[in-house]
Design goal:
By secondary structure, this protein is an alpha/beta fold. Helices cover about 45% and strands about 15% of the residues. Helix 5 links the parallel strand 5 and strand 6.
């Protein structure tokens, strides 16, 4: 069994094919798909997908790339949506949230300040509801860590991790696991592949970030969760471990850091 810990199944690139894509993933032994929201406008759509598709669960949050057009009231909408979702067993946490200091228009002083405000308020929501978070981490590792030390949460996933080993260990110490996906399949991704090899398997989860971050054999095509077994096979080869061990442990790791999903996985 495999778990895709990060997939934007409601993305426009998939059109009305989400159910077929989810079924194809299930046919490839991807038993669960975590679908994070990115803005207030898609809170309902990710919840609806999870309600309709038996292998999907969802998270709610405001992605840093959507912060420029977000209104401050969206944070109130998020808190209200989370409160309602706590009764939904398919709701697993707060995400996708975080900071992005890679995109130039998000790196101005004004946008850094707004991003940081939205991030801080969203981890407060996670803290208040005792929920894990799914983090967007792009050239922002140290700032994310600083705020997590100030506003502790129960842990979660640092998605598409591409920091240093020291930063990786800092996230792990705070109860996070690190997401590895398509980027790891490129031979030139030396740092990512080194981390995937050297870090404890208990600290890793698999993801696609579909439709984005396509693996080497699909790039630049549209990614799907059905690619996860091949991504897992790359991790197995890098680590010199059996594929079955990789699948079992990474799935166990997701269940540990997203305990509401873990409850579903035990059924």
């Amino acid at each position: 069994m495999l778990v895709d810990s990060h997939c934007h199944l409601d993305a426009a690139e998939f059109g009305d094919t989400a159910s077929q894509i989810a079924q194809e993933a299930a046919d490839h032994d991807v038993r669960w798909i975590v679908v994070p929201a990115v803005e207030a406008a898609n809170f309902a759509s990710v919840a609806d997908l999870a309600a309709k598709l038996p292998n999907c669960v969802y998270a709610l949050g405001i992605h840093p790339l959507y912060v420029p057009q977000a209104e401050m009231d969206d944070l109130n909408q998020l808190r209200a949506a989370v409160e309602r979702a706590m009764d939904d067993e398919r709701f697993v946490g707060i995400g996708e949230i975080g900071l992005d200091f890679f995109v130039p228009e998000l790196s101005t002083d004004v946008m850094r300040e707004k991003q940081t405000h939205f991030y801080g308020e969203q981890i407060k929501i996670a803290r208040d509801f005792n929920l894990p978070v799914i983090l967007h981490v792009r050239r922002s590792q140290d700032t994310l860590l600083k705020h997590l030390r100030r506003i502790p949460v129960v842990g979660g996933i640092a998605h598409a991790f591409n920091g240093s080993k020291q930063q990786a260990q800092a996230f792990i110490a705070l109860g996070f696991v690190l997401g590895f996906g398509g980027a790891m399949t490129f031979t030139r991704a030396l740092q990512i592949r080194r981390l995937a090899t050297e870090l404890p398997l208990e600290a890793l989860v698999l993801e696609t970030d579909a439709p984005d971050i396509s693996p080497a054999w699909l790039h630049p095509g549209i990614n799907t969760p059905a690619q996860l077994p091949q991504i897992a096979a790359v991790l197995a080869e890098l680590r010199g471990q059996p594929m079955a061990d990789i699948a079992a442990q990474t799935s166990k790791n997701v269940a540990r850091v997203l305990p509401r999903l873990g409850n579903l996985m035990m059924r």
